[in-house]
Amino acid sequence: MNKIGCLAIMLVIMTVCLVENDATFPSNRNSSPDGFWFGTQKLGCMYLLGKKGKRAAPSRGTSDVTHRVIYYRGYVFEQRPPPQWHNTPEWDSTAKCPVTWEKSAAGTSQVSVQSVIDFTSRYTRQYGEYNLICNNCHHFANRVSQFLSGEIL
Fold first, then answer.
1. How many Å apart are CA 64 and CA 45, to the nearest integer?
2. How far is CA 10 from each of CA 21, 75, 147, rounded to the nearest angstrom?
């Protein structure tokens, strides 16, 4: 791709962060205490911040121009890299890059939060380093969803 094409892509990605009915945690999380939700943050905003039997597990596209996170039992899990987890409503990126949560839970789980933390702690060893195309935040969120659904251990 030529320099003009790369510049055009970067301009599209580096959009201004706007709040659109966003919340730090899903607003209806109490209606499904064992539910988990997918959420997104604008990728351009995250880029600028960085400068500063069973049914299949729910999954989302892996090439969206957003940053994907997953909420479960009061914790938000993300790969930025490295994989991280937060259990406070105001983690570092939400002040400038609000999360847009899906309206309903993607699924439910009985997995303990500590098991999910352990899974995310070994994520890089198991799946490799962050890669924009092959192992990005969308792949991470889908794998956490698979873990929560019991499809992977």
1. 14
2. 26, 31, 33
φ/ψ (deg, to 5) at 75: -120, 145
Query: 31: which DSSP letter?
Result: G
Strands 100-101 and 107-108: unpaired
Question: Cα dist. 95→14, 41, 49 in Å?
Answer: 17, 11, 10
CB atoms within 10 A of CB 101: 22
User: Phi and psi of 3, rounded to 5°?
Assistant: -60, -35
Lookup: tokens for 124: 């890089």
Per-residue pLDDT of 93-131, as tens digits, reads: 777 788 889 888 999 999 999 999 999 999 999 999 998
CA angle 133, 46, 94 (to 5 degrees): 130
CA distance 1 to 6: 7
